[in-house]
Amino acid sequence: xxxxxxxxxxxxxxxxxxxxxxxxxxxxxxxxxxxxxxxxxxxxxxxxxxxxxxxxxxxxxxxxxxxxxxxxxxxxxxxxxxxxxxxxxxxxxxxxxxxxxxxxxxxxxxxxxxxxxxxxxxxxxxxxxxxxxxxxxxxxxxxxxxxxxxxxxxxxxxxxxxxxxxxxxxxxxxxxxxxxxxxxxxxxxxxxxxxxxxxxxxxxxxxxxxxxxxxxxxxxxxxxxxxxxxxxxxxxxxxxxxxxxxxxxxxxxxxxxxxxxxxxxxxxxxxxxxxxxx
Length: 278
Description:
Low-confidence stretches: none
Number of strands: 13
Distance between the termini: 36 Å
Shape: elongated
Radius of gyration: 23 Å
Order of helices and strands: EEEHEEHHHEHEHEEHEHEEHEH
Number of helices: 10
Strand order of the largest sheet: 5-6-7-3-8-9
Oligomer: single chain
Strand content: 25-35%
């Protein structure tokens, strides 16, 4: 695989007739959250990357192989260690310990999957993909089921794997996972409605709110109105909505010569942006 080429390339891809197309590239070290309501096409997108499904339009090119979590047969008696070693080729022992520990299963590595909690069983299913040699890993909802500690350590492991040249597509419903991954593809009714960074996503959301406490609300209002979407004045305070809240706050602190006791900026969260979009 060439270092100067993307791991995955979507070229004008659509998953339904007449739907908006998606064009993007996944580069080594990048991770995309794939979000959307139930039935929006998240699994179809991930299956398309794996070659198990086809979009109705466009082309998906993958360089470096794709790995995904395993699905366990109900009566199959295996342990996390069995799953960790189920891939092809020899796995470095230090890497084996690191990955099993990251998903929170080192103490349970030799326990039968059937004796683990549902969250631990899902963590075990991640092992073959995380330990594979494939450059691209697709994960369909598994991170949402991990306990908080295992989730944090798995995300940290994924960042380390990204530094080694891997890339990830992760279907998730969790805003904190979206924020951690940094890039997002949003699907609605089988079509892409957004693809880009989390910063860009939040920038499309509603304006930020700036809460100001001052004894000279009328003077402050006159100064900030040209930079604001709206200004509400109450006793000793203002509630200002603005697209560039930090610039507005900086102006209040440096150019408004009145007593300002506090400035609090309340910016839209990732959850706010996703709710508005989806």
